[in-house]
Every structure is written in C-alpha cells, then in structure tokens.
From TrEMBL:
The lineage of its organism: unclassified sequences, metagenomes, ecological metagenomes. This is Secretion system C-terminal sorting domain-containing protein. Pfam families: Por_Secre_tail. Residues 168-235 form the Secretion system C-terminal sorting domain.
Length: 246
C-alpha cells in the first residue's frame, strides 16, 4: 500500500463518552486525515461538557523520501498545543502511540467557561517510527482549531432535543429540508448560527402538533460548519442540529 506518512487517519467521531475513555470507531479502515480543514472539530459550548474523539487508523507501511518503502513500527501523537485551559487530550494507550496496522483513539475533553469563548488554533505533533530504525519522523498538523461558543448563542439546552430535529441533505449545498416532531401547535423560530455563534439567519415556522417540515435556504452560506437552532417562542420545545456545507 503506497501511503505517505502524513496520511495517518484521524477520523473524528463526535460523541458523548465517559471521562477519560474512548473506543476506536471500526467503520474507518482507510488511511487518510479526517475531517478535512473545511469540516474541523465540532465546537464546544460554554458551561457544557465537551467530548470529541479522534480515531487513528495506522497504515502498515509507507514511503518517506529518500528511503525505500518501510514497515511502520508505530505512529502517535507526541504533543498537542493550543488547547484551552482545563482541556485534556487522553489517548486510549498510555504511550499515545499505536502499532502499524492497528487503530487507536484520543479523547479531547473539557468543561469550557464563558470567559473562554473564542477560537483556539491547535498544533498536533505526530511522530512515526519506521523500519526498525528507531528514528523519529515528525509531522505537524495545524489545520484543526477548537471553537468555544457562548451559551447565550443558543439560549436553549441542546441535551433535551425535544423536537427530534433532522436535516436533509446534510452536508448541504442549497436548500435544507427540516423534519421535526412538535407536541403542540405554535410559532417556532429557526436560527442559523456559524461556528462562532454569530446569528446569520432567522425565520419563523407555523407548526402543527405531530410531524412537521420546513425549508431553509443555505445557498448563500460559505463552506463550513453551521448550527440550526429550532425553538418554540415560549421555550418549551427546542433542538439544535449541526449542518455542514462542503
């Protein structure tokens, strides 16, 4: 398999996990770097616990010029700088290194505060050991950043997800179809936020009890990560969903 050493897979799985634990996602099998710079890490929300997991699928061999093809002994994360204060990066192996041909993971976790809102560029130093030489081959990954949004950007509790909100297609390029369930009729507000919490669009939807649909025009949005926050005006029902525009 002709694989460059830089093509270590860091497949992002955004999921709730118990503190200090992560499990590699078995559905990722091909070497590469995921997500790309356009997708990035999911944002954190101030006052809410944050958990994101990198899954690493390590190639079995690689070519590093000017050397011939070499088996990979191990590849791992030697250092992560730029994380907000109180955040930790915890690998599932104490060494932070995984043998060639195996999978591993690293949990990024923390409890952001309101005074930490902002964008934090990350620098991830990946080091590989190849061909039994015992020499490190470092590589710097700098396209990840962690954004902490203010809780006021939402004004609602994402964990409840009372509306069972879904969006199609997602990723999207133009119109976005929303599907959700409402317990009562009423006027609902749909807000589109960017990854920094800035409000971009607002529209109202007249909702009936039961299954509902609505349309949002995303054609004017630039590529990136967005959030659709849907809530009833009295705050009884609410939900947030992440949207991705490639």
């Amino acid at each position: 398999m002709r694989t460059c050493v830089t093509l270590i897979i860091f497949s992002l799985i955004y999921t709730s996990l118990s503190y200090g634990q992560c499990i590699p996602d078995p559905k990722y099998t091909q070497p590469g770097i995921y997500p790309d710079s356009a997708t990035g890490l999911p944002p954190a929300v101030a006052t809410y616990e944050y958990n994101a997991v990198f899954t690493a699928v390590i190639p079995t061999d690689t070519i590093v010029s000017p050397f011939p093809r070499m088996n990979i002994d191990s590849i791992g994360v030697a250092r992560i700088t730029g994380l907000p204060e109180g955040f930790q990066a915890i690998p599932n192996r104490p060494s932070g290194y995984w043998p060639g041909g195996t999978s591993g993971c690293m949990l990024i976790t923390g409890n952001p505060t309101e005074n930490q809102t902002g964008v934090y560029p990350l620098s991830i130093t990946v080091v590989g050991y190849m061909g039994g030489m015992g020499l490190p081959f470092p590589y710097e990954i700098t396209y990840y950043s962690l954004t902490i949004l203010p809780a006021s950007a939402y004004g609602i509790d994402e964990k409840a997800n009372a509306l069972r909100l879904q969006a199609f297609p997602n990723p999207f390029s133009g119109m976005i179809s929303l599907a959700f369930y409402a317990r009562e009729k009423g006027i609902y507000s749909c807000r589109i936020l960017d990854a920094t919490g800035r409000l971009l669009q607002t529209q109202t939807i007249d909702v009936i009890p039961g299954e509902n649909t609505g349309l949002v025009d995303g054609s004017t949005l630039a590529p990136g990560i967005y959030f659709c926050a849907l809530s009833r005006h009295d705050g009884k029902d609410f939900s947030i969903i992440r949207l991705i525009k490639p």
